[in-house]
Amino acid sequence: MINLSRLSKGDMSGKKKPHRTELYEEVPPKCWPIVYSPDYNITFMGLEKLHPFDAGKWGKVIHFLKEEKLIADDLIVEAREATEDDLLVVHTRRYLNKLKWSFVVATITEIPPVLFLPNFLVQRKVLKPLRTQTGGTIMAGKLAIDRGWAINVGGGFHHCSSDKGGGFCAYADITLAIKFLFERVEGVSKATIIDLDAHQGNGHERDFMDDRRLYIMDVYNRYIYPGDGFAKRAIRRKVELDWGTEDTEYLRKVEMHVEGALNELRPDIIVFNAGTDILDGDPLGGLAISPQGIVKRDEVVFRAARRHGIPILMVTSGGYQKRTARIIADSILNLHNLGLIDKELATSGAENPKSFKIVYCALNPVS
Protein backbone atom coordinates (compact mmCIF):
# COMPACT_ATOMS: atom_id res chain seq x y z
CA MET A 1 0.00 0.00 0.00
CA ILE A 2 1.02 3.60 -0.47
CA ASN A 3 2.63 5.22 2.53
CA LEU A 4 0.90 8.59 2.64
CA SER A 5 3.61 10.04 4.85
CA ARG A 6 5.95 9.82 1.89
CA LEU A 7 3.94 12.41 0.02
CA SER A 8 4.89 15.23 2.37
CA LYS A 9 8.51 15.46 1.25
CA GLY A 10 8.09 18.97 -0.10
CA ASP A 11 6.63 20.25 3.15
CA MET A 12 9.25 18.52 5.33
CA SER A 13 12.17 20.02 3.40
CA GLY A 14 10.74 23.54 3.44
CA LYS A 15 10.60 23.58 -0.34
CA LYS A 16 7.61 24.64 -2.40
CA LYS A 17 4.86 22.05 -2.14
CA PRO A 18 4.55 19.99 -5.36
CA HIS A 19 1.52 20.67 -7.53
CA ARG A 20 -1.61 18.55 -7.21
CA THR A 21 -1.45 15.60 -9.61
CA GLU A 22 -3.74 12.71 -10.44
CA LEU A 23 -0.77 10.53 -11.38
CA TYR A 24 0.11 9.68 -7.77
CA GLU A 25 -3.37 8.79 -6.59
CA GLU A 26 -3.76 5.58 -4.66
CA VAL A 27 -3.86 2.33 -6.64
CA PRO A 28 -5.99 -0.47 -5.13
CA PRO A 29 -3.88 -3.36 -3.78
CA LYS A 30 -5.60 -5.83 -6.12
CA CYS A 31 -4.07 -4.12 -9.16
CA TRP A 32 -0.88 -5.42 -10.70
CA PRO A 33 1.85 -2.81 -11.32
CA ILE A 34 1.46 -3.02 -15.09
CA VAL A 35 0.37 0.27 -16.66
CA TYR A 36 -1.39 0.63 -20.00
CA SER A 37 -4.19 2.49 -21.75
CA PRO A 38 -5.82 1.93 -25.14
CA ASP A 39 -5.07 5.61 -25.67
CA TYR A 40 -1.37 4.72 -26.10
CA ASN A 41 -1.91 3.65 -29.69
CA ILE A 42 -1.58 6.15 -32.53
CA THR A 43 -3.98 5.67 -35.41
CA PHE A 44 -5.12 8.42 -37.77
CA MET A 45 -5.82 8.06 -41.50
CA GLY A 46 -2.82 5.75 -41.91
CA LEU A 47 -0.30 8.49 -41.12
CA GLU A 48 1.26 6.28 -38.47
CA LYS A 49 2.32 3.88 -41.24
CA LEU A 50 4.64 6.53 -42.69
CA HIS A 51 7.14 5.99 -39.85
CA PRO A 52 8.91 2.63 -39.34
CA PHE A 53 7.83 2.68 -35.70
CA ASP A 54 4.86 0.38 -35.01
CA ALA A 55 2.55 2.96 -33.47
CA GLY A 56 0.11 0.28 -32.32
CA LYS A 57 2.61 -2.10 -30.72
CA TRP A 58 1.51 -1.32 -27.16
CA GLY A 59 -2.00 -2.65 -27.68
CA LYS A 60 -0.57 -5.69 -29.44
CA VAL A 61 1.56 -6.51 -26.38
CA ILE A 62 -1.58 -6.56 -24.24
CA HIS A 63 -3.39 -8.65 -26.87
CA PHE A 64 -0.63 -11.28 -26.84
CA LEU A 65 -0.60 -11.42 -23.04
CA LYS A 66 -4.35 -11.99 -23.09
CA GLU A 67 -3.95 -14.76 -25.66
CA GLU A 68 -1.47 -16.47 -23.35
CA LYS A 69 -3.98 -16.21 -20.49
CA LEU A 70 -1.54 -14.18 -18.43
CA ILE A 71 -3.87 -11.20 -18.21
CA ALA A 72 -7.55 -10.41 -18.62
CA ASP A 73 -9.51 -7.19 -18.68
CA ASP A 74 -9.41 -6.55 -14.96
CA LEU A 75 -6.69 -5.46 -12.55
CA ILE A 76 -4.38 -3.52 -14.88
CA VAL A 77 -3.56 0.07 -13.91
CA GLU A 78 -4.96 2.38 -16.56
CA ALA A 79 -2.60 5.19 -17.45
CA ARG A 80 -3.73 8.78 -17.18
CA GLU A 81 -2.66 11.59 -19.45
CA ALA A 82 0.04 13.86 -18.04
CA THR A 83 -1.32 17.39 -17.65
CA GLU A 84 0.51 20.59 -18.48
CA ASP A 85 1.33 21.07 -14.79
CA ASP A 86 2.77 17.55 -14.70
CA LEU A 87 4.89 18.22 -17.77
CA LEU A 88 6.16 21.54 -16.39
CA VAL A 89 7.97 19.65 -13.63
CA VAL A 90 10.65 19.11 -16.30
CA HIS A 91 9.69 20.85 -19.54
CA THR A 92 9.99 24.55 -20.21
CA ARG A 93 6.80 26.37 -21.08
CA ARG A 94 8.54 27.58 -24.22
CA TYR A 95 9.03 23.99 -25.38
CA LEU A 96 5.43 22.99 -24.64
CA ASN A 97 4.25 26.02 -26.60
CA LYS A 98 6.37 24.89 -29.55
CA LEU A 99 4.36 21.67 -29.67
CA LYS A 100 1.36 23.79 -30.65
CA TRP A 101 2.98 24.12 -34.08
CA SER A 102 2.33 21.12 -36.32
CA PHE A 103 5.65 21.47 -38.15
CA VAL A 104 7.50 21.04 -34.84
CA VAL A 105 5.59 17.83 -34.09
CA ALA A 106 6.19 16.61 -37.65
CA THR A 107 9.92 17.06 -37.11
CA ILE A 108 9.93 15.32 -33.73
CA THR A 109 7.84 12.35 -34.88
CA GLU A 110 9.57 12.16 -38.27
CA ILE A 111 6.18 11.96 -40.02
CA PRO A 112 6.28 14.83 -42.58
CA PRO A 113 2.52 14.85 -43.45
CA VAL A 114 1.77 15.84 -39.84
CA LEU A 115 2.98 19.26 -40.96
CA PHE A 116 -0.25 19.75 -42.91
CA LEU A 117 -2.66 18.78 -40.13
CA PRO A 118 -4.40 21.41 -37.98
CA ASN A 119 -2.79 21.39 -34.58
CA PHE A 120 -5.97 20.43 -32.72
CA LEU A 121 -5.84 17.11 -34.60
CA VAL A 122 -2.12 16.74 -33.90
CA GLN A 123 -2.80 17.29 -30.20
CA ARG A 124 -5.61 14.73 -30.13
CA LYS A 125 -4.25 12.03 -32.44
CA VAL A 126 -0.48 12.23 -31.95
CA LEU A 127 0.46 14.09 -28.77
CA LYS A 128 -2.33 12.86 -26.47
CA PRO A 129 -1.19 9.23 -26.86
CA LEU A 130 2.36 10.30 -26.05
CA ARG A 131 1.18 12.33 -23.04
CA THR A 132 -0.79 9.32 -21.83
CA GLN A 133 2.27 7.10 -22.12
CA THR A 134 4.24 9.75 -20.25
CA GLY A 135 1.64 9.75 -17.48
CA GLY A 136 1.95 5.97 -17.44
CA THR A 137 5.69 6.13 -16.84
CA ILE A 138 5.26 8.59 -13.96
CA MET A 139 2.58 6.36 -12.43
CA ALA A 140 4.74 3.27 -12.87
CA GLY A 141 7.63 4.98 -11.09
CA LYS A 142 5.57 5.32 -7.91
CA LEU A 143 4.21 1.79 -8.31
CA ALA A 144 7.74 0.40 -8.58
CA ILE A 145 8.66 1.97 -5.24
CA ASP A 146 5.48 0.70 -3.59
CA ARG A 147 5.42 -2.80 -5.11
CA GLY A 148 9.06 -3.58 -5.95
CA TRP A 149 8.57 -3.55 -9.72
CA ALA A 150 6.41 -1.98 -12.40
CA ILE A 151 6.12 -2.11 -16.17
CA ASN A 152 4.77 0.66 -18.36
CA VAL A 153 3.84 -1.08 -21.60
CA GLY A 154 4.68 2.19 -23.36
CA GLY A 155 7.03 5.09 -22.70
CA GLY A 156 10.80 5.24 -22.89
CA PHE A 157 11.05 8.52 -24.85
CA HIS A 158 14.76 8.82 -24.18
CA HIS A 159 15.61 11.36 -26.92
CA CYS A 160 13.47 14.11 -25.39
CA SER A 161 14.92 16.56 -22.89
CA SER A 162 13.38 19.49 -21.05
CA ASP A 163 13.51 21.82 -24.04
CA LYS A 164 13.93 19.64 -27.13
CA GLY A 165 12.24 16.61 -28.68
CA GLY A 166 13.34 14.26 -31.43
CA GLY A 167 13.43 10.67 -32.60
CA PHE A 168 9.67 10.11 -32.04
CA CYS A 169 10.08 11.41 -28.47
CA ALA A 170 7.98 14.48 -27.60
CA TYR A 171 7.97 14.26 -23.79
CA ALA A 172 10.77 13.40 -21.36
CA ASP A 173 8.95 10.65 -19.48
CA ILE A 174 12.06 9.08 -17.93
CA THR A 175 13.25 12.40 -16.51
CA LEU A 176 9.72 13.19 -15.32
CA ALA A 177 9.28 9.86 -13.52
CA ILE A 178 12.56 10.31 -11.67
CA LYS A 179 11.98 13.96 -10.75
CA PHE A 180 8.48 13.16 -9.50
CA LEU A 181 10.00 10.53 -7.21
CA PHE A 182 12.75 12.86 -5.99
CA GLU A 183 10.22 15.60 -5.21
CA ARG A 184 7.39 13.53 -3.76
CA VAL A 185 8.61 10.26 -2.27
CA GLU A 186 10.58 10.31 0.96
CA GLY A 187 13.68 8.15 0.82
CA VAL A 188 14.13 8.27 -2.95
CA SER A 189 17.20 10.37 -3.70
CA LYS A 190 19.29 8.27 -6.11
CA ALA A 191 18.37 6.59 -9.39
CA THR A 192 20.11 4.47 -11.99
CA ILE A 193 19.02 4.53 -15.62
CA ILE A 194 19.92 1.37 -17.53
CA ASP A 195 19.30 2.34 -21.14
CA LEU A 196 19.47 -0.68 -23.44
CA ASP A 197 17.71 0.76 -26.47
CA ALA A 198 19.89 0.60 -29.61
CA HIS A 199 20.20 4.40 -29.63
CA GLN A 200 21.97 6.68 -27.19
CA GLY A 201 19.54 8.14 -24.63
CA ASN A 202 20.59 11.73 -25.12
CA GLY A 203 17.40 13.25 -23.69
CA HIS A 204 17.68 12.08 -20.09
CA GLU A 205 21.46 12.49 -20.35
CA ARG A 206 21.10 16.19 -21.10
CA ASP A 207 18.50 16.59 -18.35
CA PHE A 208 20.70 14.98 -15.69
CA MET A 209 24.04 16.42 -16.77
CA ASP A 210 26.24 16.88 -13.66
CA ASP A 211 23.49 15.55 -11.36
CA ARG A 212 25.31 13.13 -9.06
CA ARG A 213 22.02 11.65 -7.84
CA LEU A 214 21.81 9.89 -11.20
CA TYR A 215 23.90 7.05 -12.54
CA ILE A 216 23.40 6.48 -16.26
CA MET A 217 24.46 3.29 -18.01
CA ASP A 218 23.92 3.43 -21.76
CA VAL A 219 24.56 0.59 -24.22
CA TYR A 220 24.06 1.62 -27.85
CA ASN A 221 25.21 1.39 -31.45
CA ARG A 222 27.98 3.97 -31.66
CA TYR A 223 27.35 4.73 -35.34
CA ILE A 224 23.68 5.73 -35.39
CA TYR A 225 21.38 8.58 -34.28
CA PRO A 226 21.73 10.73 -32.25
CA GLY A 227 25.52 10.76 -31.85
CA ASP A 228 25.19 13.45 -29.18
CA GLY A 229 28.73 14.06 -27.96
CA PHE A 230 27.69 16.64 -25.37
CA ALA A 231 25.10 14.32 -23.82
CA LYS A 232 27.66 11.50 -23.57
CA ARG A 233 29.36 13.46 -20.80
CA ALA A 234 26.49 12.46 -18.50
CA ILE A 235 27.01 8.72 -19.03
CA ARG A 236 28.75 7.09 -16.07
CA ARG A 237 29.01 3.68 -17.77
CA LYS A 238 29.19 3.93 -21.55
CA VAL A 239 29.13 0.76 -23.69
CA GLU A 240 29.40 1.55 -27.40
CA LEU A 241 28.58 -1.30 -29.77
CA ASP A 242 29.60 -1.96 -33.37
CA TRP A 243 27.31 -2.69 -36.31
CA GLY A 244 25.86 -6.19 -36.21
CA THR A 245 26.70 -7.01 -32.58
CA GLU A 246 25.23 -10.45 -31.79
CA ASP A 247 23.83 -12.21 -28.71
CA THR A 248 26.96 -13.66 -27.11
CA GLU A 249 28.97 -10.45 -27.03
CA TYR A 250 25.95 -8.31 -26.22
CA LEU A 251 24.68 -10.36 -23.29
CA ARG A 252 28.18 -10.71 -21.85
CA LYS A 253 28.61 -6.94 -21.86
CA VAL A 254 25.13 -6.24 -20.50
CA GLU A 255 25.50 -8.68 -17.61
CA MET A 256 28.97 -7.44 -16.68
CA HIS A 257 28.10 -3.76 -16.85
CA VAL A 258 24.71 -3.99 -15.11
CA GLU A 259 26.42 -5.66 -12.17
CA GLY A 260 29.21 -3.09 -12.25
CA ALA A 261 26.77 -0.19 -12.34
CA LEU A 262 24.78 -1.45 -9.35
CA ASN A 263 27.95 -2.11 -7.38
CA GLU A 264 29.26 1.39 -8.13
CA LEU A 265 26.13 3.18 -6.90
CA ARG A 266 23.26 1.63 -4.99
CA PRO A 267 20.18 3.50 -6.22
CA ASP A 268 16.73 3.75 -4.71
CA ILE A 269 15.21 2.84 -8.08
CA ILE A 270 16.31 1.43 -11.44
CA VAL A 271 14.70 2.79 -14.60
CA PHE A 272 15.19 0.18 -17.32
CA ASN A 273 14.74 1.47 -20.86
CA ALA A 274 14.06 -1.83 -22.62
CA GLY A 275 14.11 -0.94 -26.30
CA THR A 276 13.62 -3.79 -28.75
CA ASP A 277 15.27 -1.98 -31.67
CA ILE A 278 18.37 -4.07 -30.95
CA LEU A 279 16.56 -6.88 -32.80
CA ASP A 280 18.27 -8.36 -35.85
CA GLY A 281 16.84 -6.72 -38.96
CA ASP A 282 15.69 -3.52 -37.29
CA PRO A 283 15.95 -0.80 -39.95
CA LEU A 284 17.30 1.81 -37.54
CA GLY A 285 19.10 -0.09 -34.75
CA GLY A 286 21.82 -1.80 -36.78
CA LEU A 287 22.40 -4.59 -34.24
CA ALA A 288 21.75 -8.33 -34.61
CA ILE A 289 20.20 -9.55 -31.38
CA SER A 290 17.80 -12.50 -31.58
CA PRO A 291 14.34 -12.54 -29.98
CA GLN A 292 15.71 -14.99 -27.41
CA GLY A 293 18.58 -12.59 -26.75
CA ILE A 294 16.15 -9.77 -25.94
CA VAL A 295 14.19 -12.00 -23.55
CA LYS A 296 17.44 -13.01 -21.86
CA ARG A 297 18.59 -9.39 -21.63
CA ASP A 298 15.46 -8.37 -19.74
CA GLU A 299 15.89 -11.37 -17.46
CA VAL A 300 19.48 -10.31 -16.68
CA VAL A 301 18.37 -6.82 -15.65
CA PHE A 302 15.44 -8.00 -13.51
CA ARG A 303 17.59 -10.66 -11.83
CA ALA A 304 20.17 -8.03 -10.93
CA ALA A 305 17.48 -5.74 -9.50
CA ARG A 306 16.05 -8.60 -7.43
CA ARG A 307 19.50 -9.72 -6.25
CA HIS A 308 20.34 -6.22 -5.05
CA GLY A 309 16.86 -5.59 -3.64
CA ILE A 310 16.25 -2.49 -5.76
CA PRO A 311 12.81 -1.50 -7.17
CA ILE A 312 12.72 -1.51 -10.96
CA LEU A 313 10.61 0.37 -13.50
CA MET A 314 10.62 -0.95 -17.07
CA VAL A 315 9.54 1.05 -20.12
CA THR A 316 9.43 -0.40 -23.64
CA SER A 317 11.00 2.39 -25.73
CA GLY A 318 12.08 1.81 -29.35
CA GLY A 319 11.36 -1.11 -31.63
CA TYR A 320 10.79 -0.73 -35.34
CA GLN A 321 9.55 -4.13 -36.52
CA LYS A 322 6.08 -5.64 -36.39
CA ARG A 323 7.36 -8.63 -34.40
CA THR A 324 8.64 -6.54 -31.48
CA ALA A 325 5.25 -6.61 -29.72
CA ARG A 326 5.37 -10.40 -29.60
CA ILE A 327 8.91 -10.28 -28.19
CA ILE A 328 7.94 -7.80 -25.46
CA ALA A 329 5.04 -10.04 -24.49
CA ASP A 330 7.30 -13.11 -24.48
CA SER A 331 9.75 -11.29 -22.22
CA ILE A 332 7.04 -10.35 -19.73
CA LEU A 333 5.82 -13.97 -19.77
CA ASN A 334 9.36 -15.18 -19.12
CA LEU A 335 9.84 -12.77 -16.21
CA HIS A 336 6.60 -14.04 -14.72
CA ASN A 337 7.43 -17.71 -15.25
CA LEU A 338 10.77 -17.20 -13.50
CA GLY A 339 9.11 -15.45 -10.56
CA LEU A 340 10.91 -12.17 -11.25
CA ILE A 341 7.55 -10.43 -11.52
CA ASP A 342 4.63 -11.93 -9.67
CA LYS A 343 1.75 -11.17 -7.35
CA GLU A 344 3.73 -12.26 -4.30
CA LEU A 345 6.39 -9.67 -5.04
CA ALA A 346 3.91 -6.94 -5.94
CA THR A 347 1.39 -7.41 -3.15
CA SER A 348 0.70 -9.89 -0.40
CA GLY A 349 -2.00 -12.52 -0.39
CA ALA A 350 -1.95 -13.76 -3.98
CA GLU A 351 -3.94 -16.94 -4.35
CA ASN A 352 -2.17 -18.15 -7.48
CA PRO A 353 0.83 -16.13 -8.68
CA LYS A 354 1.14 -18.23 -11.82
CA SER A 355 -2.30 -17.24 -13.11
CA PHE A 356 -3.38 -13.68 -12.57
CA LYS A 357 -5.83 -11.25 -14.06
CA ILE A 358 -5.05 -7.66 -14.98
CA VAL A 359 -7.85 -5.17 -15.39
CA TYR A 360 -8.45 -1.48 -15.54
CA CYS A 361 -8.26 -0.31 -11.95
CA ALA A 362 -9.82 2.95 -10.93
CA LEU A 363 -7.50 5.22 -8.98
CA ASN A 364 -8.63 6.48 -5.61
CA PRO A 365 -7.81 10.08 -4.68
CA VAL A 366 -5.23 10.55 -1.96
CA SER A 367 -6.35 13.22 0.47
TrEMBL record:
One of its GO terms (biological process) is epigenetic regulation of gene expression. CDD domains: HDAC_classIV. Residues 1-21 are annotated as: Disordered. It is an enzyme of class 3 (hydrolase). Its EC number is 3.5.1.98. GO terms for molecular function: DNA-binding transcription factor binding; histone deacetylase activity, hydrolytic mechanism. SUPFAM superfamilies: Arginase/deacetylase. InterPro entries: HDAC_classIV, HDACs, His_deacetylse_dom, His_deacetylse_dom_sf, Ureohydrolase_dom_sf. Responsible for the deacetylation of lysine residues on the N-terminal part of the core histones (H2A, H2B, H3 and H4). Histone deacetylation gives a tag for epigenetic repression and plays an important role in transcriptional regulation, cell cycle progression and developmental events. Histone deacetylases act via the formation of large multiprotein complexes. This is Histone deacetylase 11. It comes from Sphenodon punctatus.
